[in-house]
């Protein structure tokens, strides 16, 4: 065997596909009973519900844009997935749960633009060890705004880090959102995001239900231990989520050097869970992309996204990130759904019917993820993402969104990391063009 790839998510399948196309003998070992990893589409209700990744965050200059088009995957424009203040129509609610009028909406957008401009300058001047909470406080102080006006922005920034990082604002490094730039529209997938990993897996030797427990390396190559036996190869690419690495679920012999072990220890694994609520009829405004509750009334539930285009039926999606994301994992589905519904009933009154269905994720409890995606906590830095990729001793490589310094916590970051790992194994540049040549998305 030339190369073993551990993990059949987008990073692992991209690497394996490129290596296979280059003539290598490759096997992919996947602990789950499906491909895709944190790209997971549930079709039990008769339509697609993406429990994992949902969006392409920014179509401009994104390698996924061409790949998705080549596969013929249906997309639906949905440009508020990166927790923007506007971008598209949002039904904003004030602290008393009353709708913003046009003037209030314009004022809110202007306030976010002003505060973001100040925040960029404060972040640029921040010192090591500072948190995103600290820099946002300095930026808000510089506005000179009245307490309630500033507090609305304070809560907005809190929720931004919960959604972008799956962590609390005081946990995230001041520079932790530096890479959070979206170019172009965002899209979601009415037929499900998992068509991408399913297409990438076509023609590959993927062993499902095969959990890797240990990896030994030497001058002769690598030996990968699983419950079903050992595999040997010249090189190995490990693409398991950062949460699995942090938990020590895979033993490395010899131990990983500080150049890789340090980033694993310093980087954080955020928790970001989804709550889908399906209704018998629509009760919210036509033409809005989201309902957003502002201020302290938006703690813990603050944004409900209209994803009816996916199911063809009235459906809202809300999120629980950071500490709240971990907390809801201890509740029953019914308790979570009722909790997420309560603020909507306060705002819309008796017009809100009982949901006829719900889907709730628990990524922190998932043993093959142990979290949702990586982030840069206080004490870490953006460079730790790329350092995590290795290689180690020329035979051990890492890939996955956590190893992408430019685009962590994204599917396209995972894809690009798999591309980089394949090039390092081959010792040569390999074009992404043609990655999915000859295959089509299955729906």
Describe the overall structure.
By secondary structure, the protein is of the alpha/beta class. It has 2 domains: 3-37 and 189-268 and 381-426, FAD/NAD(P)-binding domain; 83-181 and 272-363, Polyamine Oxidase, Chain A, domain 2, CATH 3.90.660. It has helices spanning 10-21, 63-71, 102-124, 132-143, 147-165, 195-201, 242-246, 258-266, 308-311, 322-328, 333-348, 383-388, 411-426; strands at residues 3-6, 26-29, 41-42, 49-50, 76-77, 90-93, 187-188, 206-207, 212-218, 221-226, 229-233, 235-238, 251-253, 268-270, 272-278, 290-293, 303-306, 315-321, 357-360, 373-375, 396-398. The strands form 6 sheets. The chain has a 6-stranded mixed β-sheet. The longest helix is centred in the first third of the chain and has 23 residues, at 102-124.
Note the topology:
Elements: E1 3-6, H1 10-21, E2 26-29, E3 41-42, E4 49-50, H2 63-71, E5 76-77, E6 90-93, H3 102-124, H4 132-143, H5 147-165, E7 187-188, H6 195-201, E8 206-207, E9 212-218, E10 221-226, E11 229-233, E12 235-238, H7 242-246, E13 251-253, H8 258-266, E14 268-270, E15 272-278, E16 290-293, E17 303-306, H9 308-311, E18 315-321, H10 322-328, H11 333-348, E19 357-360, E20 373-375, H12 383-388, E21 396-398, H13 411-426
Parallel strand pairs: 1-2, 1-12, 2-8, 6-16, 9-13, 12-21
Antiparallel strand pairs: 3-4, 5-7, 9-10, 10-11, 14-20, 15-18, 15-19, 16-17, 17-18
